[in-house]
Amino acid sequence: MKCWDLENPINQPTGSSPSPPLPLTDTSICQSEPPTMRLVGWRFGGRCMQRSQQSSKRSSRSVEDDKEGHLVCRIGDWLQERYEIVGNLGEGTFGKVVECLDHARGKSQVALKIIRNVGKYREAARLEINVLKKIKEKDKENKFLCVLMSDWFNFHGHMCIAFELLGKNTFEFLKENNFQPYPLPHVRHMAYQLCHALRFLHENQLTHTDLKPENILFVNSEFETLYNEHKSCEEKSVKNTSIRVADFGSATFDHEHHTTIVATRHYRPPEVILELGWAQPCDVWSIGCILFEYYRGFTLFQTHENREHLVMMEKILGPIPSHMIHRTRKQKYFYKGGLVWDENSSDGRYVKENCKPLKHRPCLTKGLQFHSLSLLRTKRKTRQMTLQDLFSPQCQRSSEIQLAATHHKPPYLSSWPTSSTCALQYVC
Prior knowledge:
The protein is an alpha+beta fold. Helices cover 29% and strands 15% of the residues. It has helices at residues 119-138, 170-176, 184-203, 270-273, 281-296, 306-317, 322-327, 346-354, 362-367, 372-375, 387-390, 393-405, 412-415, and strands spanning 78-79, 83-91, 95-102, 108-115, 151-155, 158-164, 206-207, 216-218, 223-228, 233-238, 243-245, 252-253, 334-335, 338-339. Helix 3 packs antiparallel against helix 5 (281-296) and helix 6 runs parallel beside helix 8 (346-354). It is found in: Nucleus. ATP binds at residue 113. Keywords: ATP-binding, Kinase, Nucleotide-binding, Nucleus, Phosphoprotein, Serine/threonine-protein kinase, Transferase, Tyrosine-protein kinase. Residues 1-30 are annotated as: Disordered.
């Protein structure tokens, strides 16, 4: 596939101060054609409605922002004469996500992401919208498991994106299950889907750059409670492990400027820490870390500091290649070709006690058939996955059984070749 051409974003003020409040019933800002932006995902669709006589159903209070630029909204508020807020789904630095009923589509449930009324967040949102538009153009039937945007609008300075209402993200489910690991068949199926989605993105010269359990959502997070006799406790088991990859706020095309630092700390590859430049292999590293976390219930690299992070990588995966050490500008971490690290410090003792070579972990060598080590190669050009390696016949059977249990078998299970090399091929 050819690289997607980016559209020029519509010029709008990018100041950091919120726009002045306007009446909720004013729809003059409604736009028929979207500009461009970047954001998270659920799927949805539609155009802005014109002012209608439904305005009597809406609250007549003025639009109000808090001191940080978040839209103040309450249950029962309406946006664009169309979306009725019925619940809160979460809040973050970017803004908030609310559950709405879409009265233009038979009161279907949607998740509406409302961006803060701050210039830099509006600009980031325009960039993500552009990415989401291109994803939808290339994957109209949602075969590649990325969240699809189908509506967006500017509400008094707040960029808003509507998506299909999905379930909990995989980290939230793990947390609510007291960090009990996912069963191996579940991990296999999620791994299969993650790589399927990533293959699509990378073929279209797009790197996600921020893959982590929080950005992977279950389509439906309904669960059953089972008793684990081995652990003498109850555990939640999700009924359907179908997932969607979300949050394209940091996604970057191959031809775009690549910022120096990408990826959330725990899922960040060594080339980013060492500022050697990055490309699509950084997503593969993140997947390796994610799958370990699914299978064990805790992060592989539990750290918040670069030097310690690099030491953990060496303890778990082996020495950092000499060519990376010679090329990096971060020579402060090294001396005579080796990491500078005090093993007798409290941090040093922690790393020594808790970071064991991955290949020596019996729980992984016996059970984890998709070889996490192949996803965590320090050398970028060898950090590649083949479907034959990742999806063994046993893994394929597990995925098909899981899907059969949910009465849903996406076409990619039969159409995606199992003997060819996955499109995640990398150049150093």
